[in-house]
């Protein structure tokens, strides 16, 4: 999918004296909103000018000589940490197989769900992945890294595409997770500036003050497997699953295959 208008726009943004002002308060916002309004959007210049980023501190965990970093709730990253920390090779600890069976047993699952449910909370169901999602993993020459997962849900909402390459999304499927769409009775009901419940979980692993690996996606079982894979050095470049960008002595290596991954070396 080629988007020449988006390429030109990003080049103008990069060349601007003040890229932030250009995008939110300058000529860039005018161009951006023009393409959005052609698709009947409700974003205004005032919305762009008043926009501020809210940065939340990462959730960190120290495990197997690594520092694992990920986003706070409503991301499911904390569950990924818990799952990885609980695992061990059954050859070296026979009790782990018994613990695993108990953890995934019906009684344990029901007990866990009851702790989180309320009359405002939706019934929790397992979904293997969120539709319309993609991941971006980037590490530059200076060792700075970004792991990002994005999703429009419901296979790109209404499937309207602007000339700048942005998909319009009127569905907001994550706000309807496990409940009637848009129900105000849900704890996950949409509100201005509110983040929906999500299975997204980008992860950055750090070892010896350097980025060791990056992974991320909406399949939290796959993310858990990839993190475990990175920590135990059980790597396979041919396996399918959540992509894993790993640093080695000879450079960066992409492990696990996934067509929906964008990687920067």
Fold blueprint:
Elements: H1 4-15, H2 19-24, H3 27-37, H4 45-50, E1 59-63, E2 66-70, H5 77-86, H6 95-103, H7 106-116, E3 133-139, E4 145-151, E5 160-161, E6 167-168, E7 203-207, E8 210-215, H8 220-232, E9 244-248, E10 251-255, E11 261-264
Parallel strand pairs: 3-11
Antiparallel strand pairs: 1-2, 2-7, 3-4, 5-6, 7-8, 8-9, 9-10
What does this structure look like?
The protein folds into two domains: 1-53, no CATH class; 59-152 and 197-254, no CATH class. The chain has 265 residues and is α+β, with helices and mostly antiparallel strands. The chain has helices spanning 4-15, 19-24, 27-37, 45-50, 77-86, 95-103, 106-116, 220-232; strands at 59-63, 66-70, 133-139, 145-151, 160-161, 167-168, 203-207, 210-215, 244-248, 251-255, 261-264. The chain has a six-stranded antiparallel sheet, covered by helices on one side. A three-stranded mixed sheet has the order 4-3-11, with no helix packed on it. A two-stranded antiparallel sheet has the order 5-6. The two termini are 21 Å apart. A hairpin with a 5-residue loop joins strand 5 (160-161) and strand 6 (167-168). The model has no long low-confidence stretch (mean pLDDT 73).
């Amino acid at each position: 999918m080629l988007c020449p208008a988006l390429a030109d726009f990003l080049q103008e943004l990069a060349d601007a004296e003040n890229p932030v002002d250009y995008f939110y308060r300058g000529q860039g916002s005018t161009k951006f909103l023009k393409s959005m309004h052609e698709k009947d959007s409700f974003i205004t210049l005032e919305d762009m000018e008043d926009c501020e980023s809210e940065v939340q501190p990462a959730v960190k965990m120290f495990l197997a000589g690594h520092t694992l970093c990920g986003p706070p709730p409503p991301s499911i990253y904390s569950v990924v940490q818990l799952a990885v920390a609980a695992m061990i090779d059954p050859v070296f600890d026979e009790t782990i197989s018994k613990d695993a069976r108990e953890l995934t047993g019906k009684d344990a699952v029901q007990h866990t769900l009851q702790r989180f449910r309320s009359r405002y909370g939706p019934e929790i169901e397992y979904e293997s992945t969120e539709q319309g999602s993609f991941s971006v993993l980037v590490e530059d020459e200076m060792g700075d890294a970004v792991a990002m997962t994005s999703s429009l849900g419901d296979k790109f909402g209404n499937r309207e595409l602007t000339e700048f390459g942005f998909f319009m999304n009127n569905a907001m499927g994550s706000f309807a997770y496990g409940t009637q769409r848009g129900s105000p009775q849900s704890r996950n009901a949409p509100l201005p500036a509110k983040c929906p419940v999500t299975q997204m979980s980008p992860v950055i692993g750090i070892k010896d003050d350097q980025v060791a690996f990056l992974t991320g996606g909406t399949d939290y079982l796959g993310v858990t497997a990839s993190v475990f894979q990175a920590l135990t050095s059980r790597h396979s470049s041919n396996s399918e699953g959540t992509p894993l960008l790993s640093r080695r002595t000879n450079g960066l290596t992409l492990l696990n295959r996934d067509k929906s991954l964008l990687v920067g070396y």
